[in-house]
Amino acid sequence: MNAGAQASRLGIGIVGAGRVGPVLARALAGAGHAIVAIHASGEDGRERAESMLPGVPQLEVAEVVRRSELVLFAVPGAELPALISGLAATGAWQPGQLAIHTAPEHGIGVFAPALAAGVIPLALHPAMVFTGTSLDLTRLAEATVAVTAPTPVLPIGQALAVEMGAEPVIVAEQDRAAYAESVGAASEFSRAIVRNALDALRGLGIEHPERVVGGIVRAAIEEELIAGTADPEV
């Protein structure tokens, strides 16, 4: 498999129009790929898809899959197993088709029902908080993408992460659960600490507590990240 050829100028379909799918679609379109269709559910999802991907057809899931060389599933991890199995049962998958999901807790094993049809599986998780707007395209440049894939396919996953604007980081299949726990804890603990500090300052009657907390938190996190890159043996 020629990774460079396989990952260039693909017809990409997006399943999921939450905060992640349309942003990654925009990033990949900016790298020269064609976004052929998107599945969006709910009024918010349809509006977001139209705003971020104007003119891209909004279709049912099976039709998105049938039209695409690469299908990107940007849906909650809990929904993936049934969705992938259902598509396999209806014969929607195509031989040689690339299938990617963005759920941190799953590796490529979740695509097992599709493998018999010749699907090529990848798991790509961007480690960032999405707003669902074009602001995220800039944030991707400072983010990493956890790449899990069969060894021959890893270069494709890494290339796609780079095309999104991020830095690829390889995570082994057996390490996905621990990876998901780590990034989830970082996000939740950070949010909880900020919320508690804001509430406490508001209780003291301080105006604009976000300015007080923001300066401290950003500086503290930056210092800790710098310290985390140092050689522990030094």
Task: Give me the secondary-structure topology.
Blueprint: H1 3-6, E1 11-15, H2 21-30, E2 34-39, H3 42-52, H4 61-67, E3 70-73, H5 80-89, E4 98-101, H6 112-115, E5 120-126, H7 135-139, E6 144-148, H8 154-164, E7 167-170, H9 176-203, H10 209-228
Parallel strand pairs: 1-2, 1-3, 3-4, 4-5, 6-7
Antiparallel strand pairs: 5-6
Helix pairs in contact: 9-10
Descriptive report:
- The chain has 234 residues and is of the alpha/beta class.
- The protein has 10 helices and 7 strands.
- It has helices at 3-6, 21-30, 42-52, 61-67, 80-89, 112-115, 135-139, 154-164, 176-203, 209-228, and strands at residues 11-15, 34-39, 70-73, 98-101, 120-126, 144-148, 167-170.
- It has a 7-stranded mixed beta sheet, with helices on both faces.
- Helix 2 (21-30) links the parallel strand 1 (11-15) and strand 2.
- It is globular and about 60 Å long.
- The model is unreliable at 1-6 (pLDDT under 50).
